[in-house]
């Protein structure tokens, strides 16, 4: 029984002795020997098959001519098997008939709509290599040799109850999805155990030796192969009457899920719906779109294993189904442009998401078109500027050789409330993640969680340049993880299939949302962030009031915001991609508000079940008008002020003439003359 032998022929060898039950696992031929004792039940109950009986003939067994009934305990299961497939060794789950006393012939003895191909272990494992899709089909399997018929399904579902009767401590359960193996069935009535004595696919009989103290509306549980169903019983009348509390039961007892016994309505888990929780409550969590000329679309999410009247519509076009599983749909769509609604219909249920599909442009645009060809060249395949020597930044508009660039006088501080402050001389920028919103299909807010000041620091490096925060949303199991990293050296990194670059001094923000419980599968999330600049006063030559600008396009991979003050710019780069439940998907960015010194952005996140990841980043750079040294201007202005106050206007006029004379002979005097003339005009 511990080897891979399936057939053993020991016929005509004059062997003496007995056979024990360890031989039940092989197809045994011991004809024409001198063996004695009893033939094991596993063989004896198969003697209605003439070949099996023939293999034990011409011996001295005590029970050769007696008749016995097989105690057959069959199951349908998926077992992983390794085999060759198209010149390649693969391991796949295959449908298998397993159990006790299931026979020694896979071909002539079994009658079923499933084609069994191979006996893996005689009398206990017979497998089928035919493809099989889980569809809740209940199979009838018959064994010709024994005349037995069984009802089985390989798709595991909790036991369903339709009727329970009680008579003198004997309870009979009628329903579906029970088992022929009584060892895997557990029934608890109140705090008492009901001992199972017999079971089939449709009926279980058990003995309740002692009754619980409470006889009315007794909370009970039936468990079959680790799948359980809860129900209520009335045991105050035990003369063969029905004791299942039909008045508070739910249809099919909710397929093993929660029944509200006050209303008789099933409380289905979020992935199921319907009066008995048997219908998939489908949704799409991520989409891999196609270009504007059309093509293959991949949708990931939850679609279940029942797909009655499945239809996928994108915009006003039907997306023709290519492949289908419980978690993925691929389909082909025609040409189009822009954002489109997505509708998935099946099983009488409609799932819809506005503007979820975005046709992708093959030509991506760059921020400010990289200024001009002297500054940089736009890579139209990814929308990233490739800056020329001497220039840097997302649009190549910041001098890279200026000592006051972002890696010079920029200091970043990650604050305990989860915000980040970026200081550059007298200019202070702030980045804050403020709230998480759950939006319904009409983009109306159904729930809002304020995130600021609720963060807990979970990790922090010695320099404070890489800090991780977490928080659990109030009265939920949803966890949000916020990581803020100051880039200490120029880096290249990848996210959601994109290769990106960050300069030294940039701030990389990563946010992940885990196990959010939506009020509806139609709902989505929006994470809101604020970027602003503090209202400080600068009197130097770079002084400039604050202004903001945005570059947000749905069909572009990268979106930007910028806040310009004192010839320094805070850039925020938002990647229109996220990782939803392990799959890359397109997302959109919404402009919530835009004021002179502040921009609020909403990052729209799809309906993700387990996790969503987004990855924006920020940089403070100087623009091309920035003056690295204001001291020279200040010195000349001071000289002029002294001259004006001590000598007077008449003397200044003489000086102007004098300096103008030197202007003809000296380029250095030219600068002084310019400053003096400017000051005279200011004096007037």
Automatic annotation (TrEMBL):
InterPro entries: B-sand_ComC_2nd, ComC_SSD, EGF, EGF-like_comC, EGF_extracell, Ig-like_fold, Ig_E-set, IPT_dom. Coiled coil: none annotated. Residues 385-396 form the EGF-like domain. Pfam families: Beta-sand_ComC_2nd (PF24143), ComC_SSD (PF22933), EGF_2 (PF07974), TIG (PF01833). Keywords: Disulfide bond, Membrane, Transmembrane, Transmembrane helix. The chain crosses the membrane at residues 639-663. Gene3D superfamilies: Immunoglobulins. This is EGF-like domain-containing protein. It comes from Dictyostelium purpureum.
